[in-house]
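Practice problem: predict the structure.
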Amino acid sequence: MTVVDTHAHVFPEITRAESLRLTGSEEGPWLRVSDGPGAGMMMAGAREYRPVRRTLWDPAERVADLDRLGVDVQVLSSTPLMFGYSLPTERAVDWCDTVNSRMLDYSSHAPDRLAPLCQVPLQDTEAACATVSGAMRQGFRGVHIGNHLGDRDLDHGALLEFLAHCAEQDAAVLVHPWDLPSGPRFSRYMLAWLAGMAAETHLTILTLILSGAFEKLPASLRLLFAHGGGSFPYLLGRADNAWHRRDLVRADSPRPPSSYTGRFSVDSAVFDPGALRLLVDVMGAEQVMLGSDHPFPLGEEEIGRLVRESGLTPAEKEAVLGGNAVRFFGLNHPVKEAVR
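Answer:
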């Protein structure tokens, strides 16, 4: 059985000077690496954002982790702090090119084990499409994007154009919540992560469904939502009930929300056997893939343990642990060009 973790992050070694030169912002993201054993800090300008361990920027440490945890392949995405969506387009293109180049360098340490996703200047559709096209030629397996762009969700015309282009380029799309709700109600106990992330993902999935976006997008588009699809799978009955009872809800969607679960996938990062069972029941085992959020503290420490020790059938476990991801990311096919 091939085990594939589809949700794992990298923060390449980018210094503050590089970040300032590329982004033009004193608040740009960079990585502060200490002289101690494995300690680092994600930075936003002078502000400490999150303490991190060496696996995040050292591919040898990453592969050692995968060996210890019994993971064959990890699909790697940059840390959402690095998206750069607020930058002017020219700077955003240079920033994404740099991050993507570092992602390729990182993955080249073990190209059969580390499968990179690119990031794009999503604020400019033409530039984002060009970046995806170039990245797929370089050996990326797809693209990692945030779930919205300011007030525009993924049903916005420009973002739909980008998603359609991804389908044309055979680029899988990992959608990750970012730019989380803020304010006093979210400032304590990591509530922005614990509640805000789930709400953001739920909002984006429902928006794609109820806006009729899935009727416009190619059926070949491969979408994967992080964190088990947020709260969507657990409140799907509420959405279906509303669609049947209120014309305002179904105005642009010809079918109830539950009929669209085959149009996207979700990862398994739900951390509870009952939640995993419900997730598979709602989405179907073929739409769920192992995802850990490695190597962050809120991720699954023993990658795949939840799935392995769950009450899923052997066939369901095999699909979730790797079979689905191998097909979704084309891992059984060589990359178009060798990763440099």
